[in-house]
Specification:
Shape of chain B: globular
Radius of gyration of chain A: 18 Å
Largest sheet of chain A: 7 strands, mixed
Shape of chain A: globular
Order of helices and strands of chain A: EEHEEEEHEEEHEHEEHEHEEEHEHH
Largest sheet of chain B: 5 strands, parallel
Helix content of chain B: 25-40%
Number of helices of chain A: 9
Radius of gyration of chain B: 23 Å
Number of strands of chain A: 17
Strand content of chain B: 15-25%
Structural class of chain B: alpha/beta
Number of helices of chain B: 19
Oligomer: heterodimer
Strand content of chain A: 25-35%
Distance between the termini of chain A: 27 Å
Helix content of chain A: 25-40%
Chain lengths: 277, 477
């Protein structure tokens, strides 16, 4: 049981949750994730660690309401206890001094790249961050990202804020101007990460993506998160979640991501009906 | 006591079972357990041998003739206490131990093919205790100020922890999942081992030890860190990593590892979806690869979730199948089809990742291999396509490296299992012991229990002779 100590809506349908978890806070590193359950009948879902406070002993995650579990989570209040909260899981990002790096975050993926950007900047890198959202309202963590980067580029699909367009267009522009980009990190929806890889491939810039695979235990026990990387089967939970995006079999990954779409919709619809929302 | 001649004349009393036509539609237990008069009738057959060969066949060292005698005397609470002296998990052992290869095989009646149903009687006594909320307790021992950490709450970990607690040690079990029990909870289905029973026996052990769930040793804290806080450590983290065949198509959407399929169903209760949130797929035509107990569990679960046809695909014959005979019989009764001497070579799918079939090749048996079993050899040109839309891979599990990676000076072999002195369960690092599947690969619940008992005794002598991990310096890398 882990207590929710702060909960904040940071955009429509996007919530930031701070949870008391001293042992996890002590160990957490950029790129890692936790798995939580809302209640005894709940499912186990992975969420990236968006931030941690070692002194306070807390871990922060950010999620978007997309189904039953995230809806239930969004209805929990400060002081409520999560049935399960475990981590830190996965391999941390390789933080090093590379030179110029580009960090791309789309949607709630921004929360996943924040720590990576912050620690890369701390390590002395020139961090160009590109963050994107559908529209101004749904853009999250702008201020944090500004601090965590040397240069921040914002894009919105509808042009209501920053540059109109997709993060990939802004990335193309950066790569065209700056021939010295050493590494790119991209976290967001699968289609976005795939598109980022398509942009960076001709430039031969190493591109790290963080895969949001379906998981159950998160410790290498079930293999539901498996993905083909460079022709080999990897478990996202223990071998990842970060992989070289140029080597990921994206169509397989996206197929596997959609395995339970029907059941997820059914569960969400029933829940909304039952709770009258 | 009835006369020996009379006892020997009796036929074994079979345990009633749920009808196969009914049971494939529910998750209720298949063997129904003895009624009191039947248990007593069966117990009366026991010849009370001294020394008793059956005890030698039991890794949990259960006082078999003694507890059976108590049943005959209709002192069921006494029978329970007798079992509890050596075995902390009787309701589980009574159900999932392969008694036919252990205690019952050693029974003197076994020569005539009618051993005492020791497992059934053990289950009867344990169920009686649960039903009547038996408060029987062993005498309290003096508390000792030594701390022991147990990694993993499966049968090995639970047994070791309970035995050490009985000796007075302060024991903490660390469990990675949100529920204790390890394979008893995530692996073995409800119809073979009801979770209520598992919870009851774990709760009972929890009275004497601390069980910390959601704690992944290796990630939340390393073994090295635990070594600074505890006087001894028992590593019983199991062999939890699923193996795959490495054939094309294995990452298609509805290819499951048995671990995933069973964890969803058993631990997460996906068979009750959408009451429980975790989903599970229901293929119409399901192939389960492998013929061990896990394969039988997966096949029978698939059937209960709603599969129209379930096939077990195995490259050798029924003779070599590692599952308990009883499990294969149960699976056959339920209508599961067995394709022996058949090896999958490729799983076929469409561009959306749906399975459209599985290509297999027919096998024949050649000379015995290193395992002593006759080696299956492919018959060239015998390839055919099996019509399936879901595949469950149950070819076995292997070591998960998370725990071992965080344990300095604790050696593993080439498969990642801890290397131990078989007599003592001692690893290469003083004060660190290991047992269960993480030392030998996936085996049985009872062999894990045996290790747990052995390790508890050795840990006791290590600690009694002044050993202490937290007072020892970290070995050099």
């Amino acid at each position: 049981m882990q207590r929710i100590i702060a909960k904040r809506k940071i955009a429509p349908g996007i919530i930031s949750l701070e949870v008391e978890a001293p042992l996890i806070a002590k160990k957490a590193k950029p790129g890692q994730f936790i798995i939580l359950m809302t209640d005894e009948k709940g499912e186990r879902i992975p969420l990236t660690i968006a931030d941690y406070d070692r002194k306070k002993g807390s871990v922060r995650t950010v999620f978007e309401v997309v189904g039953k579990t995230t809806e239930k989570l969004s209805r929990m209040k400060e002081g409520d206890e999560l049935f399960s909260f475990v981590g830190p899981l996965g391999k941390p990002s390789k933080i090093d001094k590379y030179g110029t790096v580009v960090i791309v975050g789309g949607g709630t993926g921004i929360a996943s790249v924040y720590l990576i950007a912050r620690e890369l900047k701390k390590a002395g890198n020139n961090v160009i961050a590109i963050i994107g959202a559908k529209k101004r309202d749904s853009l999250i963590m702008e201020e944090e990202m500004r601090k965590a980067s040397t240069k921040l580029i914002i894009t919105t699909d509808d042009g209501s804020y920053g540059t109109k367009g997709l993060v990939t267009e802004a990335l193309s522009e950066v790569l065209r101007k700056d021939k010295d980009v050493k590494k790119v990190w991209a976290v967001g929806p699968a289609m976005m990460m795939k598109a980022v890889c398509d942009v960076t491939r001709p430039h031969k810039v190493e591109t790290i993506v963080s895969l949001n695979a379906i998981m159950v235990d998160g410790t290498g026990m079930c293999g539901t998160c498996r993905v083909t990387v460079g022709g080999k089967t990897k478990f996202t939970c223990v071998d990842g979640p970060e992989f070289d995006g140029h080597l990921v079999d994206w169509s397989e990954f996206i197929n596997r991501l959609n395995r339970y779409t029907l059941q997820e919709k059914l569960a969400f619809d029933l829940y909304k009906k039952r709770t009258g929302k | 006591m009835i006369p020996v001649k009379e006892r020997m004349k009796r036929s074994p009393r079979p345990m009633p079972e749920q009808d196969s036509k009914e049971r494939i539609h529910n998750f209720n237990e298949v063997p129904l357990g003895y009624k009191e008069q039947d248990a007593i009738y069966e117990a009366q057959r026991c010849l009370q041998c001294d020394p008793a060969p059956c005890v030698g066949g039991c890794p949990a060292e259960v006082h078999i003739p003694q507890f059976i005698r108590k049943i005959v005397e209709e002192d069921l609470a006494g029978a329970y206490l007798e079992i509890l002296k050596t075995n902390n998990l009787p309701a589980m052992c009574g159900r999932v131990c392969p008694q036919e290869e252990q205690c019952q095989k050693a029974c003197v009646y076994s020569k005539k093919g009618k051993p005492i149903a020791i497992g059934g009687l053990e289950r009867f006594v344990a169920d009686y205790a649960i039903k009547h909320d038996a408060k029987e307790k062993l005498p309290e021992t003096k508390k000792k100020d030594k701390l022991v950490a147990v990694v993993g709450s499966g049968p090995a970990g639970l047994t070791c922890a309970a035995d050490l607690a009985k000796m007075g040690y302060d024991v903490t079990i660390f469990e990675a999942l949100h529920k204790g029990g390890g394979v008893l909870t995530y692996g073995i289905p409800e119809f073979r081992l009801p979770k209520k029973i598992v919870e009851h026996e774990i709760n009972k052990i929890e009275l004497g030890v601390k069980l910390i769930t959601d704690f992944i040793v290796g990630l939340t804290k390393s073994v090295d860190e635990l070594a600074e806080e505890f006087d001894a450590i028992f590593l019983a983290n199991g062999a939890g990593a699923p193996q795959f065949m490495n054939i094309p198509g294995e990452n298609l959407n509805d290819v499951y590892s048995a671990n995933e399929f069973l964890t969803r169903s058993n631990l997460m209760k996906a068979y009750k979806f959408p009451e429980f949130d975790t989903p599970i797929k229901t293929g119409k035509r399901v192939a389960v690869i492998g013929a061990g107990n896990v394969a039988m569990d997966a096949a029978r679960t698939a059937l209960r979730i709603g599969a129209k046809e379930v096939r077990v695909v195995y490259r050798r014959t029924k003779e070599e199948a590692p599952a308990r005979a009883e499990e294969i019989v149960h699976a056959e009764e339920e209508g599961i089809v067995f394709d022996f001497l058949t090896l999958p070579v490729r799983i076929l799918g469409d561009e959306k990742g749906n399975i459209t079939g599985m290509e297999c090749i027919k096998m024949r048996l050649g000379e015995p291999d290193e395992s002593g079993r006759r080696k299956p050899i492919p018959t060239e040109g015998s390839n055919f396509i099996m019509q399936v839309d879901m595949v469950i891979n149950a070819i076995g599990t292997t070591a998960n490296p998370i725990v071992a990676r965080s344990a300095t000076g604790v050696n593993t072999n080439k498969w990642g299992y801890f290397t131990v002195d078989e007599k003592t369960c001692a690893t290469s690092r003083d004060g660190v012991f290991a047992g269960g599947d993480i030392i030998r690969g996936s085996a049985t619940v009872i062999s894990a229990i045996g290790d747990g008992k052995k390790a508890a005794r050795v840990i006791d002598s290590y600690l009694s002779s002044g050993g202490s991990l937290r007072k020892s310096p970290l070995p050099r890398k």
